[in-house]
Amino acid sequence: MKQLIETIVKPLVDFPEDVHVNVNEEDQRITYYLTVNKTDMGKVIGKQGRVAKAIRTVVYAAGSSQQKKIFLEIGE
Fold first, then answer.
1. Shortest CA distance to 23 belongs to which of 44, 5, 43?
2. How many domains does the chain have?
3. Does pTM surpass 0.85?
4. Domain span at residue 38?
5. Could you give the C-alpha distances from 44 to 7, 16, 33, in angstroms and in order?
6. What is the distance between the alpha carbons of residues 7 and 71, in angstroms, rounded to a whole number?
């Protein structure tokens, strides 16, 4: 899943080397923390959050086969 998030986000940003995904796994949930360069935040979020929503939709669909709930947090 980490690879999927990086594959989606890196072509969108100007600084792909600053894209990092950290994973926090708990009993009933897995949280992915996506961090990008401060100047790329607008590109990852998109107008009215459309790009971020689309990324989350793909990640949630890909993780639906797992028994745990998946969350994606985006930060700088």
1. 5
2. 1
3. yes
4. 2-75
5. 13, 12, 13
6. 17
pLDDT tens string 2-54 = 999 999 999 999 999 999 999 999 989 999 999 999 999 999 999 999 999 99
CATH code for position 62: 3.30.300.20
Tokens of 50: 């459309």
Other CB atoms within a 10 A radius of the CB of residue 43 amount to 14
Distances (CA, A) of 25 to 13, 50, 69: 27, 26, 10
Report d(CA 64, CA 67) in Å as an integer: 8
Q: Is the dihedral of CA 31, 23, 61, 47 positive or negative?
A: positive
Annotate 39-64 with DSSP letters as a single string: GGHHHHH-GGGHHHHHHHHHHHHHTT
